[in-house]
Fold these 2 entries.
Entry 1:
Amino acid sequence: KAGVTQTPRYLIKTRGQQVTLSCSPISGHRSVSWYQQTPGQGLQFLFEYFSETQRNKGNFPGRFSGRQFSNSRSEMNVSTLELGDSALYLCASSSRRPGQGAGEQYFGPGTRLTVT
Amino acid sequence: AQKVTQAQTEISVVEKEDVTLDCVYETRDTTYYLFWYKQPPSGELVFLIRRNSFDEQNEISGRYSWNFQKSTSSFNFTITASQVVDSAVYFCALRGERTYKYIFGTGTRLKVLA
């Protein structure tokens, strides 16, 4: 099976712009989560989607949003970029359904976003 | 509130030494799940193990072993006879059945020197 794929791998944006990142989960996985990884804050949970519905959300401002499509692919969007949004954004997929306990997550290689 | 503490920021060992990475967690959920992930220099997190709160059996997988102790809220990870390829950042993570969010520790950077 192909792993989790994320595009683009690298991105440079200017403050104030907006950006959309894409994630394709492992085939058959319907749960997709997003994380932000920075040296200072570590890995922080952004949100989780299952069957096109947001199931859980981390403590990030409304500038961070996401969605999931019927084929389980997911996108996250960050509007009005700030310098502090520079980070590695990781996507993870899982085969577990809500209510089936917490399954292991399989991570993609991440998108390295640099905001200048 | 949920919390995962990995007090060891960085550990350096010489190849073939054994090393233990500590993980202490906090949760109010009675059912929860603990994980270890490895992040090599390439950047992609790799799943290592998942443990349920109701299963305190320790696990061994090759050179890796995990010691889960609910009494001390710890889920420690030991690498026996470490190798250079074990050099990576290791993350411990927690997900509560009710809180439903994955919480990661800050990671422990392991350097295995030849």
Entry 2:
Amino acid sequence: AQSVTQLDSQVPVFEEAPVELRCNYSSSVSVYLFWYVQYPNQGLQLLLKYLSGSTLVKGINGFEAEFNKSQTSFHLRKPSVHISDTAEYFCAVSVTAAGNKLTFGGGTRVLVKP
Amino acid sequence: DAGVTQSPTHLIKTRGQQVTLRCSPISGHKSVSWYQQVLGQGPQFIFQYYEKEERGRGNFPDRFSARQFPNYSSELNVNALLLGDSALYLCASGHAGVDTEAFFGQGTRLTVV
């Protein structure tokens, strides 16, 4: 079985400041890693995913994440946030590369302040 | 191109009733997955269907069932509704192949009173 822990439930941040969202996972088998964003009253949109290769993954909207196998972490970062980045962010793992059976963390709500 | 569409967008049911939620995948996608997202929590995997066969089931009671039709659309049924079934139900479709992603619909908000 897999589990995902997002260490921060809420992260307030000022516009143009950097942000880091922390994610740790636990699994007895190899997994693939994903970050999703959910804007209010909408479904989930994929930001980025780690399947293999370089441990630094770049995604959409200026986000990037780094896979650390020894620490079983997959933290998400953005160097400069915008008001439009206000949303809920979910880290997820899957045993399939297509991410068809995802195990999600509890989410981190990012509130960007002007 | 149309994305994943779910219907209805909202509905209210009474405890003990039954509900059917519907999902139309992106054209060409043969895999459909269902998730339950309780307010303030992350989504939880309920079912995956691929080519009309169940390929995975999460830790949900037998009151939850689903099926996939020849056109790859899917229905999620929940019987004997409980207050705790109130949630956003999300459907995701994909190719089920390597290096693809699951695309999510906007969900159906179910309220059980």
